[in-house]
Amino acid sequence: MARLLETRLPLANGRVEPELYNRMVRILELSFEGFDPTATYQYTDTTRDQNLFNRGDVIWNLTELALQVYDGAEWQTLYAPSGKGVGATGELGTITVQASGSTTVFIS
Q1: Separation between Cα atoms, residue 46 and residue 88, nearest integer Å
Q2: Within a domain: residue 23?
């Protein structure tokens, strides 16, 4: 995937000094390995399926409006909005709460 690099390097005309060259190479190294925790890549189903992803990659699926993670074989939905809120389902048998004694709360 292509990526735009954010740099503040000056333009050189003619010979480039070693300091500038080394600085530019270091910025390129850091940029290619960069991670922005505030940005989630966004893809449609079509563009997602045309790219190669690593296990653990997280994307926002524009087709399904869902946050998904790649498990190495298929995409798993982590979050998908339901109407105006967030919905989740789960299963729970018993909860045991211990304070000074033990209390069991049954949830059905």
Answers
A1: 27
A2: no
Question: Does 101 reside within a domain?
Answer: yes
Provide the domain limits for residue 65: 36-106
What confidence tens digit (pLDDT) does each residue in 63-98 have? 988 889 999 999 998 887 766 555 556 666 665 555
Amino acid, single-letter form, for residue 106: F
Q: How far is CA 36 from the centre of its chain?
A: 9
For residue 8, being part of any structural domain is answered with no
The side-by-side arrangement of strands in the sheet containing 58-61 is: 41-43, 58-61, 66-70, 75-79
Closest CA to 27 of 9, 14, 4, 13: 9
Q: What is the pLDDT of residues 50-69, one digit of tens each?
A: 988 999 998 999 998 888 99
Q: In the chain, how many domains are there? A: 1
pTM for this prediction: 0.45
Q: Is residue 97 part of a domain?
A: yes
